[in-house]
Amino acid sequence: MNSIAVIGASLAGLRAAEALRREGFEGTIHLVGDEPHEPYDRPPLSKQILAGTWEIEKAWLAKPEKYEELALETHYGVAATGLDVAGLNVALDTGATLDIDGVVIATGARCRTIGEPLAGVFTLRTLDDAQGIRAAFDKGPGRVVVVGAGFIGAEVAATARELGLDVTMVEMATAPFERSMGAEMGAVLADIHRDQGVDLRLGVGVSGFTGDDAVTGVDLTDGTHIEADVVVVGVGVIPNTEWLADSSLDITNGVLCDETTLAAPGVVAAGDVARWPNPHFGETMRVEHWDNAITMGTHAAKRLLHGESAGPYAPTPWFWSDQYDRKIQLAGRTTDFDRFELVNGDTESRTFAGIYGRGGRIVAVLGFNRPRHVMRYRALIDEGVSFDDALAADI
Amino acid sequence: MGFKVVVDFDLCESNAICMQIAPEVFEVRDDDFLYILNETPDEGMREKVEESAQRCPKQAIKLEDLPAAE
Ligand SMILES: Cc1cc2nc3c(=O)[nH]c(=O)nc-3n(C[C@H](O)[C@H](O)[C@H](O)COP(=O)(O)OP(=O)(O)OC[C@H]3O[C@@H](n4cnc5c(N)ncnc54)[C@H](O)[C@@H]3O)c2cc1C
Ligand code: SF4
């Protein structure tokens, strides 16, 4: 193998490029990304960058020395427009074609939107998005409405409250993070937001926005109208696979890979864009978390270079979210969980750890300011121990 | 030639990723602080500590090479 193209210059792509070098690949590595910036870290966008406590430079994913060492052919501000899987060629929007021997697909995901673009209505995925929202916050808006109480929404709400802004958060489900942590634990998180002064509207959707030149309010499905000067929509993401439409790859809800992250001979995928059967959970999943972008990018690089011997990619997914003074962490999969037990602390103090079980096995652990417990139970999930053994474990 | 583990505690957010990768070296205790159990681990631990440094969400971990012992 003489040359490899990494498409998507963000977390998964950069970590894959680093892993290629670490594993001894000495050929050409093209790193292609459609954003104008060098690779940067996204988690600070809803936290420190939005809060204004970090300069942008702190979010760059690597220092200049690192790039020198990696000797990448970088193509920033350039989009891939097509992949010829049989011939291993990548078409770029500059008109050029990269003729390579291997491809890492790491084009991530973008935000879902609601309705037509309107001034004052934002989504948050990129540095430019974060700077736009920050500028709108700096104008001292009367009211910020956050649509969706998932990851992005809940963090934006927390940061906006910390900046002293009035916040209403609207969520269709009956609790924030309901899909990832269940209704009961989501209710604990809901109380935290209420205590911090967020006007939380649950079980209701958004039917549209009002305003001609700029947003003036949000119409809810129950007929209510909320005034708004700034709206941040956080209603999930869509994997960036359009450029692969003619590639013959299966791109239903992400690029489908095999257990080893291989999508086709010479083609691997990693990060938010990749879907693969995780043998540890017997579930085909697409994981939109930071740590997964790193470990999957690394695994995909090894798969490309070393073939089947790289083995299956079978991680226990993990994410964290910072909201106010709470560090929320969830490791594992809560899909169809049938048991939940607190194993440390209590929900009143909002400092606790709890474990989820399915079919007699521990499948997930949730912690509010309990990182040590989360990591210990995560190890038990990795080992595949029974729920009862996990309950009895001395942690 | 050994190495020394250095953590920038101003950056560290105690999310214990490092502890999961290299529990011999890192421990987040109940007080929510990270403790380095062994600042100068054996060479055999280098790979794990490097992985911890890479996967630390705050990039708070560094490895410093130590001069060879006389
Ligand atoms: C605001 C925010 C906060 C977050 N906070 C957390 C957190 O606290 N904890 C956590 O675990 N996770 C968090 N995440 C999730 C985490 O950042 C993502 O999982 C991670 O960025 C995924 O990395 P990726 O490289 O797979 O994809 P992305 O980061 O989406 O990168 C893909 C890149 O590819 C580019 N691209 C797309 N199409 C093309 C094309 N055709 N040609 C060239 N380039 C293309 C995109 O523009 C982008 O730069 C957060 C995400 C956001 C947005
Ligand atoms: S992984 Fe990084 S931030 Fe987390 S506890 Fe270790 S040093 Fe601190």
Structure description:
The complex is a heterodimer of chains A (395) and B (70). The longest helix of chain A has 17 residues, at 290-306. Chain A has 3 domains: 3-110 and 237-310, FAD/NAD(P)-binding domain, CATH 3.50.50.60; 113-233, FAD/NAD(P)-binding domain; 325-392, 2-Layer Sandwich (Enolase-like, domain 1), CATH 3.30.390. In chain A, helix 1 (11-22) runs parallel beside helix 9 (290-306). Chain A has helices spanning 11-22, 43-46, 48-51, 64-70, 127-138, 151-162, 178-181, 183-195, 290-306, 371-383, 387-392, and strands at 3-7, 28-33, 73-76, 80-84, 89-92, 97-99, 102-105, 109-111, 121-122, 144-147, 167-171, 199-202, 206-210, 217-220, 225-227, 230-233, 237-239, 255-256, 262-264, 267-269, 274-278, 283-285, 318-323, 326-332, 339-346, 351-358, 361-368. In chain A, a hairpin with a 2-residue loop joins strand 19 and strand 20 (267-269). In chain A, the strands form 7 sheets. Chain A has a 6-stranded mixed beta sheet, covered by helices on one side. The mean pLDDT of chain A is 96. Chain A starts with a strand and ends with a helix. By secondary structure, chain A is an alpha/beta fold. With 70 residues, chain B is of the alpha+beta class. Chain B has one domain (3-62): 2-Layer Sandwich (Alpha-Beta Plaits). Chain B is 21% helix and 23% strand. Chain B has helices spanning 17-21, 46-55; strands spanning 3-7, 26-28, 34-36, 61-65. In chain B, the strands form 2 sheets. A two-stranded antiparallel sheet of chain B has the order 1-4. Chain B has a two-stranded antiparallel sheet with strand order 2-3. The longest helix of chain B has 10 residues, at 46-55. The radius of gyration of chain B is 12 Å and the shape is globular. The mean pLDDT of chain B is 89. The chains are: A alpha/beta (395), B alpha+beta (70). The A-B interface holds A 15, 18, 43, 290-291, 294-295, 318, 320, 322, 327, 329, 369, 371-372, 374-375, 378-379 and B 13-17, 19-20, 27-30, 32, 54-55, 57. Bound molecules: flavin-adenine dinucleotide (FAD) and iron/sulfur cluster. The site of flavin-adenine dinucleotide has 37 residues of chain A, from helix 1, strand 2, helix 2, helix 9 and strand 23.
